[in-house]
Amino acid sequence: MIASNELVLGDQPKQIKCPFCSNSTVSTVTFKNGYISYITCFLVLLIFGIMASLLLIPVIMIITRTLIHKCSACNEDIGGDGKVFHVLGVKDSMMSFKIGEFGVILTKRIVIGILLLILTLGVLWYRIIDLPTSQWMDYHQHHNPNITITDTWTDYLEKCAKQKIFQNLQFQQICYQKYIDRTIVDWKGYAIRVEDNQQSLLKFLHHSVNILVKMDPAESEFHPDLLLTADSEIASELSSEIEKLERGSEFIFTAIIKSIGDFQNIRHFHLLNITQLESYIEIPPHLHQQSRYGNSQQFLASSTD
């Protein structure tokens, strides 16, 4: 790896006096992969998996390699071509940053390496905490068993309607203690919108599948009643059923209640199973800020009157 104080000798062999052995010699040009190459390869492996990485990593190793000048006599690295990546032609340079009263000077190579390392650690952390559902359920069942309840959606609304918990914090606390991360429900609903991120990088930022659901009776005329989410394992297992869902499709779902929601946040359920039924209802496109319904907050408030 070329340090910022080493010689910039271009991309052709050069006549030079070696600073290590003091011999006058013509340098030997070769290529090396440094820490940026290996961090990038590890990041690609985390994001795309083994099969895609087998194709991508050889390409990455080529385009991220660095040109090195070696002494022909002692074989020490004596310089480079002044580029972070030789193939891409990204030139290395000094970059200065001011943090309060302190100044920091780094090379572009180091800055790129730090950013890649932060991104890699973020993806790795996501991978670690995003345990497969089966493992998570085994742990959760052992330490905090879930209970499948017989409460219907109507029963749930009688206790935990948004307007009720908004007006009375005691109801909110009761609903939280009774339902959140403790109960599994088997209910029917209608699909408003299905977001399938299984083939997208968005699955690392969000859930693999998001399903906006309209219930019967609906709590709001204009808004989804709850959000079903699935991790990559569950989404893969249920992919055939999820692919069938269209706007208005009726389905039965089994899910763990994760949040009771409020006027700013939708109810959140973790999907465990789903089965499409034959019935359909007419559902307009999902409300958003620029939709034909106008201001979403205004309609959210009016829908609770």
From TrEMBL:
Pfam family, one: zf-LITAF-like
Entry's transmembrane regions: 35-63, 110-128
Source taxon at top rank: Eukaryota
All copies of domain LITAF, residue ranges: 1-83
UniProt keyword annotation of Nucleotidyltransferase present: no
Annotated InterPro entries: LITAF (IPR006629)
Keywords on record: Membrane, Transmembrane, Transmembrane helix
Keyword Aminoacyl-tRNA synthetase in record: no
Name this protein carries in UniProt: LITAF domain-containing protein
Source species: Paramecium pentaurelia
Lineage: Eukaryota, Sar, Alveolata, Ciliophora, Intramacronucleata
